[in-house]
Write a structure and sequence with these properties.
By secondary structure, this protein is α/β, with parallel strands linked by helices. Helices cover about 50% and strands about 15% of the residues. The chain contains 10 helices and 7 strands. The longest helix is centred in the middle third of the chain and has 29 residues. It has a 7-stranded parallel β-sheet, with helices on both faces.
Length: about 290
């Protein structure tokens, strides 16, 4: 039986991907920093009539990564698919994000992803095959106001994955990117995080940030209502015989991917600016008043 390891499986895309891969016959290990937060995963598995084994993992701590890979090797003896999904996002304009808050996002989204990849490669190379699926974002292709450091981490993941795709191809190890658009998952609700300074009611950028958030939420609920599409997209990237390098998922991600290739750069950047600023500006007075 093929084995998959999915990081950040307690909620969101990681949970959905773990369940979908289990449904497709993989032995799946889902990781999370606190296994006592596995309730949502267990419920989803029960509803889908599948099983996902849980391993503790903090991708920002090397001893935790080493222990996770040792446990995986002991239990399964192989690793066919690594889904690097664990990640965090802090809302707020760049000036309102402290150095510590920016570094926290890079530690998880970039350096944690790299450390997990480095730890998994010896096992994949030993068995002569493997696939690494890095969950990026359309924010790794298009910079989004109010999420500059997060977008920076995803741009880094994109470049890292593309280079790794070429480095590992001759070893039988494939690297793919899944680029979700904006979907209603816990990262926007129960796990929503805002930079400390950005949350101050008297902050000079507060009104524009809140208005921009509202525009994004409105788009999200109308364009991409079902996050299960991302779980299915991750599973597709993990299982296709001849995988593509990039899998954009969601109406906004697919539209952006198409437009970036076909439109002149100046027109594309103008449209991106219009999308966020034109929707945010009319709401500023209401935000300031409320």
């Amino acid at each position: 039986m093929k084995t998959a390891l999915v990081t950040g499986a307690s909620s969101g895309f990681g949970l959905l991907a773990a369940v979908e891969l289990a449904r497709q016959g993989y032995r799946v290990f889902g990781t999370m920093r606190s296994p006592d937060k596995r309730g949502a995963l267990d419920k989803a598995c029960l509803e889908a009539l599948v099983q996902v084994e849980v391993l503790p993992l903090d991708v920002t701590r090397q001893p935790s990564i080493d222990a996770c890979l040792r446990a995986l090797k002991t239990k399964a003896g192989r690793l066919d698919v690594l889904v690097n999904n664990a990640g965090i996002a802090l809302g707020g304009y760049f000036e309102d994000q402290s150095d510590a808050e920016v570094r926290e996002q890079f530690d998880t989204n970039v350096f944690g992803l790299m450390a997990m990849t480095r730890a998994a490669l010896p096992l994949m190379r030993e068995q002569g095959s493997g696939r690494i699926v890095n969950v990026s974002s359309i924010g790794g292709r298009v910079g989004t106001p109010g999420l500059a450091p997060y977008c920076a981490t995803k741009f880094a993941v994109e470049g890292f994955s593309e280079a790794l795709h070429h480095e590992l191809g001759c070893d039988g190890i494939e690297v793919t990117l899944v680029e979700p658009g904006t979907f209603p998952t816990d990262i926007f609700f129960g796990n929503r995080r805002t930079a400390v300074a950005a949350a101050r009611p008297d902050g000079p950028r507060r009104a524009r940030f809140v208005a921009g958030e509202r525009a994004v939420y409105d788009d999200m609920l109308h364009r991409n209502p079902d996050p299960k599409r991302v779980g299915e997209g991750i599973a597709r990237a993990a299982t296709e015989k001849k995988p593509k390098l990039r899998y954009p998922v969601g109406t906004d991600a697919q539209t952006a991917s198409w437009a970036m290739r076909l439109l002149p750069a100046r027109l594309w950047h103008f449209l991106v600016g219009q999308r966020f600023n034109a929707k945010a500006v009319p709401e500023l007075a209401a935000v300031n008043a409320g």
